[in-house]
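Obj.: predict assembly geometry.
Materials: sequence records (below).
Method: joint structure prediction, all chains together.
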Amino acid sequence: MEWESWSAFWQMGGAAPYVWGSYGVTLVLVALELVLVLRRRKDTAARLLRWRRAVGKDVGGPQARMESIE
Amino acid sequence: MTISTTTPGRAAVRPPQGWLRFAAPQQFYPLAGQLAPWFAALAALLAAAGLYIGFFVAPTDFQQGEVYRVIFIHVPAAWMSMFIYLIMAFWSAVGLVMNTRLSFIVSQALAPTGAMFCFVALWTGALWGKPTWGAYWVWDARLTSQLLLLFLYFGFIALTRAIEDPRRADRAGAVLALVGAVNVPIIYFSVQWWNTLHQGASVSIAKAPSMATIMLVGMLLMALAAWMYSIAVALWRVRALILERERHTEWVGAVLEAEAKAAGGVR
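Observations (raw structure tokens):
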């Protein structure tokens, strides 16, 4: 083990703001991207399902009506 | 957002066999969904191992002290930001030559992740630079060309989203990706070509790495984690893009209905 104590670990030899600032921002961005990318697919699927049902795509609804949606 | 109808001029040619059949969005969509969680799990395991080594096994750097531990994300993020751009350029070239829709989609699915890693490389570099060089930012060749890469990512994302016709958006984006790829070797070799403040390569093919083995192991584990993470996120993003692009097709309708049923039904 490299550290004498947990507080020594968190202090990072005085470089805490730089080290934790780096890791913290990276962690936030990675988490944010994961949430956004998974939510995007779900939202797209839900939106397209509503759209398809609205234009009656599944029962062979007229293509022309698609332009009026959204 | 408006819906622009894509040209329905997709000729019914004989479907390709073997791995090539996954070039069809319809085949790739379920494959991507099955593979992505495995890549994400690998990324988590590799990152856990890399961080453990980086924080608890690797010793203090005798010159830089503890702040050097930033490299365990800085270097993998910088590598990833360059790799992803090259992969985007590669798929753009394939798309332009072979006219495969999935190539363009993959290229566009990678861009936000590449931009994220590019920003992380710049951010962590700045936080490392302050205590080490005494400045968050200097306009040296390495830093400036890396900043240009971030703008290339932003430009690519903005361009592909601004053009409404997906086919034109694909082609415009592909050209930008290819032209911008010139910047990647400039970033990589900038530390050799110019007298930069940024240090030279810590790891290179030609000579032994200029760092302790255990530090190198931690860094390579983090680099592998970044790869796995990028693949997972890109696969998930590809799925959303495929649904959007193929929304007029029968198979997307069937997939959406099946998913809605499995989820307990939207309405």
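Conclusions so far: The helical segments of chain A are 6-11, 16-54.
To do: check interface contacts against the pulldown list.
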